[in-house]
Amino acid sequence: MADFYQNGSVTTLHNLGQRSYEDMEKELVSFNQTRPLGLLLPSLFSELEGPALAKIIDKIAQVPYLSEVVIGLDRADEAQYRYALEFFDKLPQHHRVLWNDGPRLKAIDAKLQALGLAPTELGKGRNVWYCMGYILASNRAESVALHDCDILTYEKDLLARLLYPVAHPQFNYEFSKGFYARVADGKINGRVSRLLVTPLIRALKRVVGPNEYLDYMDCFRYPLAGEFSFRRDVLNDLRIPSDWGLEIGVLSEMHRNYATNRICQVDIADVYDHKHQDLSLDNAEAGLSKMSIDITKAFFRKLATQGHTFSTETFRSIKATYFRIALDYVETYRHDALMNGLSLDIHNEEAAVEMFAKNIMNAGQTFLENPMETPFIPTWNRVISAEPNILNELKEAVEQDNLEFIPK
């Protein structure tokens, strides 16, 4: 049982009484009658061959309250797309697979590229952005959940709890962020969130000074969780990064567009595990190393938009402050692990902190050297303004792919 503490301006919805899934499902079925519910799944083709996704789809197939499931499929050729259509065909809900590497969607992407309106990087951000466009185009769902496709511990109540805050007609939340304890196989996981994001926010508060945005970000118990839900109208004016800063970018955009009483976080799982990225100590372009640089730049960019000026000396202060705070957290997590009978490798934890500290400087230097860098994908409002028929074209392309390649 979690605590009931409210730790900031963002409402925290706890799991206080282990309410039965069946009871929550019954309500969601009712909500779906007046506010149709959907699910967005950004997937790599490799995840169809992994240990998690087949089990996830088996669970989703049993969910009676979804009006739409939208799957974004990356890194798939024609044979793999055909396989994906069969793979997801067990879903009884209305569903569509966006073949992002297919000729029809690539043609749409090329059209938007020519206008400077398409994502510039391949990856999850681009996949999610096109899926969001399709959700706007299909007009089937009013409230939508998004979660990763590599969750090894997936259960139906994760989806139910994730959707509930934006589905309930008496709640006014536009956005809900999932959180959970990253504990699996007798270890505490979630190094980037524990050892980079939280200490970095605390360091920025000391160096930058009182800041409402940093206080807001500090409210989130797991800011890097890939699970969140939203009302459909959120999608029109959402500018998301195409790099590893996706989760931080989405939270920042919600802060820019909405009052905090329209945002919440919800406890969605007692146990959560998924695939783990390599630390990549010697490669700043891969794994947790690249992730840490992209996330750190996302914070710097946001604070710059508020008028804060950065210099090499400022970044040195942030790095030094971060380093001391993060090392103290290593000791804190060690105590927490020992009390709960978990293992925690101090050497690996401190090696991660050292790499993150180095990457704060790398991110700062990149920020100074590339002041015109704009990794944000344009809002769908802007795209529609430039190409008024684009959503219809996107929907038609997806439908044509489905008609042409679905097994007869």
Structure description:
This protein is α/β, with parallel strands linked by helices. Helices cover 50% and strands 12% of the residues. The chain contains 15 helices and 10 strands. The protein has helices at 21-34, 45-48, 53-60, 78-88, 103-114, 124-138, 156-167, 191-208, 212-217, 246-257, 287-305, 312-339, 346-369, 380-386, 390-405; strands at residues 11-13, 37-44, 68-74, 95-99, 143-146, 175-180, 183-184, 187-188, 228-231, 263-269. The strands form 2 sheets. It has an 8-stranded mixed β-sheet with strand order 1-10-6-9-5-2-3-4, sandwiched between helices. Helix 1 (21-34) packs across helix 7 (156-167), helix 8 runs parallel beside helix 11 and helix 8 (191-208) packs across helix 12 (312-339). It is globular.
Instruction: Give the overall average pLDDT.
Output: 93
Give me the strand/helix succession.
EHEHHEHEHHEHEEEHHEHEHHHHH
Biggest pleated sheet:
8 strands, mixed
The number of strands is 10
Spatially, the strands of the biggest sheet line up as 1-10-6-9-5-2-3-4
- The number of helical segments is 15
- C-alpha Rg (nearest Å): 21 Å
Portion of residues within helices:
40-55%
**Which residues sit in consecutive blocks of at least 5 with pLDDT less than 50?**
none
The portion of residues forming beta strands comes to 5-15%
Shape: globular
Which oligomerization state do the chains in this entry correspond to?
single chain
N-C termini distance: 49 Å
SS class = alpha/beta
